[in-house]
Amino acid sequence: MSGGTVAVSGATITAGTLDAVLGATITSGTLAAVSGATITTGTLAAILGATITGGTVAISGGTVALSGGTVAVSGATITAGTLDAVLGATITTGTLAAVSGATITTGTLAAILGATITGGTVAISGGTVALSGGTVAVSGATITAGTLDAVLGATITTGTLAAVLGATITAGTLSSVTSISQKSFQEATSLTVATTDAFASIMSVTTSVYGTYSFFVYNRGPGVNAADAIVEISANGTNWYTDVSTDSGIAVGSVEVLVPQRFLKYTRLSSKSTTAGNATTVDVYFNGQGT
User: Fold this and answer.
1) For residue range 169-208, what is the model confidence (pLDDT) as tens digits?
2) Strands 185-194 vs 281-290: parallel, antiparallel or unpaired
3) What is the pTM of this model?
4) Burial class (CB in 10 A: 0-12, 13-18, 19+), 106
5) Domain 185-290: which CATH class?
6) Contact, 229 vs 258, CB < 8 A?
């Protein structure tokens, strides 16, 4: 045929090419190729090597194998397989076997198994994070329980540490220490202190955490002037009681060791010139052993 229109009803076309099909319904058979057609309804049993440029394809049952390209999925459930890239998607539930190189901007992950997070911020609400090996940098966090094997270069601003093993604290203030291990020896010094005519405190120590402690006093001179020393104790750090004292003045070049006889929270060492107006200088050492 050349030109015109052919209306076909109930026919079977076994071969050849149709330039155009307008308003037809194909109920069965195989189309070798479809170019530029619009299928408005019905069911295709199988599609081999097709390109769909627009519209909506609803798939019920069966398997769709995707190789390359970009797929926009709305409201679907993907049960298995691998997606090379997901751009701008929201995954509301389910399990991802593996995610490589993705950026998750918001939402909630119920569980993460074996992931590596290279940047960004992870906010964890509830649940448990188990860390095995590696290094964790924590900024502004509160750790309520558990054990940290090592902390490198951190600043702890508040809270309570249940136990510290083998740590070195380089600066800062500890508001209270409940116990110092027996293996921990503590020393404090106050050197070249000039004496006055009245007893003046040279060194005050919070001794509530010590089991054994004493003060070592050395009169370094110069000259020949002696010095007296006393150990005072206090429960409140304001009112002091004289516990022990030197029997006689400590001569220049001599040493006296004063060991407190009574125990209170605070202990201090005070000294003065044995003879008024004849000052000298002393070195004071405190040695303490934890309980």
Assistant:
1) 777 777 776 666 555 788 999 999 999 999 999 999 999 9
2) antiparallel
3) 0.46
4) exposed
5) mainly beta
6) yes
